[in-house]
Amino acid sequence: MNYALWFQLASPEIVLSISSLVLLLIAAWGGVQSSRLVSILTVTALFGALALSFNFLLNPSFAEGADAFYGQYRMDRFASLSKILVFLSAIGCIIVAPKFFARGNLMRPEYPILVLFATIGMGLMVSAVDLLTLYVGLEMQSLAAYVLASFLRSDDRSAEAGLKYFVLGALASGILLFGLSLLYGFTGTTSFIGIQTAFGDGVSTGALFGIVFVLSGLAFKISAVPFHMWTPDVYEGAPTPVTTFFATAPKVAAMALTMRVAIEAFGGQQAVWQQIVIFVALASIILGGVAAIGQQNIKRLLAYSSINNIGFILIGLATGTEAGASAMMTYLIIYVAMTLGSFICVLDLNDREGRPVEEISKLAGLSKTRPGLAAALAVFMFSLAGIPPLFGFWGKFVVFDAAVAAGLIPLAAIGIAASVIGAFYYLKVVKVMYFDEPADVIAPSDSAARMALVTLTALFVSPLGYFATLALSPVTAGAAKALFWAA
């Protein structure tokens, strides 16, 4: 037992845990007036965890990864890359929040602290190699998320979103926990590698039910069809900074956890779960595209866009190959940039009285009143649609390429055809902004931080993003390889 190594491996979560306890004391003593200080210190702590994760990603000493706490926690390149995405998303969501909450003097120090608690849970999720660590990390993230969804206590929509998320989340957690108990009962172990070894001689009927229940619970967390029902309502009702957070960091953590469970725990029985993943992927792509067409609220549209994109990412998982896992990580990186940028644009849509504007019809003529914001939002819409030469096209391309290489040509063909559905509702937003008569509802921006983040993310998803593939390709390939170390 090397406790020093164990604590070193878990240093990002340890730093965030200590920081969160200190910040809780500051918030308790300082009250509402400490909101700005707590936000700054939270971002500082996240940058510290980010630096530690970068060290694990780039340090050759950790290229093979290492286990800690008796094989319950693993830090490898896959976990470190996932944590980098989670931490960057959390930092962005904290930076853009104060202006939104300042409108009603609603900013409280609990917001960044709750984000921090959720981030600690997500760090555990992506490093989990044991069913116990999986559940603890997932519940820690979920409990903080329920409170965040209902953060605006005086807003009926926010309270409703929090209640819906809590009730459906509790149901999903029960389904997941039942599946975990079945897996333990029929394999005699909670270790991912132990489960894979137990499945070496085949999967019993009871264990098969366990796999189905576990994948169902995880499908809820990534808002994949048919467990997506909470997503549009929660995204619309929750405060927009919280929705931005839900659409980025937890999606990365839940998808990374799903990848690790499928490949490390169930990897020896790909034929058992592949058909489930293929169905969920196609259903998410098609329903996410079709249901978004009639949406009039930009946040609900982006919620269905999130479901649609999760379907494309799951195509990479269906391959069960290193190339597919690498493509998923590439897509996740691009997805985070596109989604973060899109929601920050939505955050900047306010009328003259400072009230948020969410109706798509009120974006009419935005290209004439706010040309910079309209251009950025158009870039994100085109990129989410996967239209070349924007970087979003590359995410879809690598996923489809991995599917074709794995022999899943029909799956790739259906996915490509279904992409056309999604392009319609993205182009509808662009059409309203550029070709409709100006509604002149949107006021000028009052946040330099938002504009800076929008500019950075827009440049990343522009054709300039292809230059990043020179660095991203070996990193995502290394992360994918770390998942298959026991294969």
UniProtKB/TrEMBL annotation:
It catalyses: a quinone + NADH + 5 H(+)(in) = a quinol + NAD(+) + 4 H(+)(out). The keyword Calcium does not apply. The chain crosses the membrane at residues 6-30, 37-58, 78-101, 113-138, 165-186, 198-220, 272-294, 301-320, 332-350, 371-391, 403-427. GO terms for biological process: ATP synthesis coupled electron transport. It is a multi-pass membrane protein. GO terms for cellular component: endomembrane system; plasma membrane. It comes from the Bacteria. It is found in: Cell membrane; Endomembrane system; Membrane. Its main location: membrane. Residues 128-422 form the NADH:quinone oxidoreductase/Mrp antiporter transmembrane domain. GO terms for molecular function: NADH dehydrogenase (quinone) (non-electrogenic) activity; NADH dehydrogenase (ubiquinone) activity; quinone binding. Its EC number is 7.1.1.-. Keywords: Cell membrane, Membrane, NAD, Quinone, Translocase, Transmembrane, Transmembrane helix, Transport, Ubiquinone. It is an enzyme of class 7 (translocase). Belongs to the complex I subunit 2 family. NDH-1 is composed of 14 different subunits. Subunits NuoA, H, J, K, L, M, N constitute the membrane sector of the complex. NDH-1 shuttles electrons from NADH, via FMN and iron-sulfur (Fe-S) centers, to quinones in the respiratory chain. The immediate electron acceptor for the enzyme in this species is believed to be ubiquinone. Couples the redox reaction to proton translocation (for every two electrons transferred, four hydrogen ions are translocated across the cytoplasmic membrane), and thus conserves the redox energy in a proton gradient. This is NADH-quinone oxidoreductase subunit N. It comes from Blastomonas natatoria. The lineage of its organism: Bacteria, Pseudomonadati, Pseudomonadota, Alphaproteobacteria, Sphingomonadales.
